[in-house]
Amino acid sequence: MKENQYENCRKVIQEQVREQLDLSRELTDEEIRELIDEQLLQESRKYSLSLREKRSLGKEIFDTIRKLDILQELIEDEEITEIMVNGTDGIFIEKAGRLIRWEKSFAKRENIENIIQQIVAKCNRSVNEASPIVDARLENGARVHIILPPVALNGPIITIRRFPKEPITMERLIALGSISEEAAEFLKQLVVSGYNIFISGGTGSGKTTFLNALSQAIPNTERIITIEDAAELQLLDIPNLVRLETRNSTAEGTKEISIRDLIKASLRMRPNRIIVGEVRGKEAIDMLQALNTGHDGSISTGHANSTKDMLLRLETMVLMDEAMQMPLEAIRRQIASGLDIIVHLGRLRDHSRKVLEISEITGFSEGEITLRTLFAYNEKTGMLERCNSIMHTEKLQGAGYA
Questions:
Q1: Is the pTM of this model over 0.85?
Q2: What are phi and psi of 328, to 5 degrees?
Q3: CA atoms within 13 A on the CB side of 397
Q4: Distance from C-alpha of 356 to C-alpha of 346, rounded to nearest angstrom
Q5: What is the DSSP letter of 166?
Q6: Which of 230, 311, 337, 384 has the smallest number of CB atoms closer than 10 Å to its CB?
Q7: How many angstroms separate the CA atoms of 202 and 258, rounded?
């Protein structure tokens, strides 16, 4: 069948199915498929559809009505790690570390808007012209970021980052060369011993993946509370786990629940450890205060270009809260007292993701936070190597490491 005939047939069947949908109740997937099959049977004689074309049409129509239209094909491809919809201008994907343009695209802006509303509705969020930016997630745990016009000039923008079905373990990261076996064992001992760890890195450097892998060392006898903008952490084998997610305000009067609100609430829930998916604003002060009030072994992530830059960013984020009016020295003391280790990740030119540096916060001296590099990535050898200074690190003796 010619391409234009195939497209006409798809539109006809799709409209017929939509007309027959019983909007008074929630239809099951099986009922939708039966409606599609009935229409396919009727139209197959008119368009002389082959068995292969029937199957293809059936899936496309089902995906349009029940799933995420043409994006469903990409979401089901486990080799694709990122999907970027630039309005009707085109769709780009990341596959095997390479960014390429997909051959398909949305013909109408309305189709993208329908998908967006479907995504946000399933995780109790809302997005519109008045509030055009939202973070959400798909049923498979993939992270979704959405920006609507008028903020997005070339139409509705969707960015989907998917994670593996099975969380990547530390053993897998060692096999991939992302971290050395010695450094992985060292971090495992720190997690078990209750050291506060902060994971820094740029966009796409693998912070969430590494946090998941690191969390596997947490003893399963502890009570863990995770706090995220959009729930995506995959913590394994922790029976006493509480997962909290932020909520946007809505036009109907639903109140916003922020990261700050959730951190404050978590302190009343008897946590052993608090894991904040990402710190990016005023909530930094609440996290630091939690770390300084007996919640040892907590872990969080943030965007930065190095371990030193992460400290500067934390200072800046605390200063964003004008109500606190804390002097810079007090902020630095809070950071030095609350955090023990910063693990910095990076994405190299060959698209591989690696641990580039592990640094210890050794204290506060002469108005500055002092850092000591324990492991550093050697570009010549392509390995994360132990630094001699770790032999003399007194603060880490409690973890049984020398």
A1: no
A2: -60, -40
A3: 5
A4: 6
A5: S
A6: 337
A7: 23
Domain's final residue, options 124, 140, 162: 162
Q: How many domains does the chain have?
A: 3
Place of tokens 């003391």: 333
Please report where in the chains the tokens 């955090």 appear, as a residue.
339
What is the band of 392 on the pLDDT scale with cuts at 50, 70, 90? very low
- Determine the pLDDT at residue 249: 73
- How far apart are the C-alpha atoms of 69 and 67, rounded to whole Å? 6
Q: Are residues 177 and 48 in the same domain?
A: no
244: helix, coil or strand?
strand
With beta carbons less than 8 A apart as the criterion, state whether 354 and 348 touch: yes
Question: Nearest CA to 211 among 300, 312, 337?
Answer: 300
Confidence at 168, pLDDT banded by 50, 70, 90? confident
Rounded Cα distance between 197 and 374, Å, is 14
Residue 24: pLDDT over 70: no
Q: Measured at the alpha carbon of residue 41, what is the angle toward residues 40 and 44, in degrees to the nearest 5? A: 75
Classify the C-alpha dihedral 136-139-143-144 as positive or negative.
Answer: negative
Q: Is 391 helix (H, G, I), strand (E, B) or coil?
A: helix
Q: With contact defined as beta carbons under 8 Å apart, do 163 and 234 qualify?
A: yes
Domain end, chosen from 11, 37, 66, is at: 66
- How does DSSP assign 178-240, residue by residue? SS-HHHHHHHHHHHHHT--EEEEE-TTS-HHHHHHHHHTTS-TTS-EEEEESS------S-SS
Domain enclosing residue 28, as ranges: 1-66
Alpha carbon 339 to its chain's center: 23
Task: Say if residue 135 is in the same domain as residue 214.
Answer: no
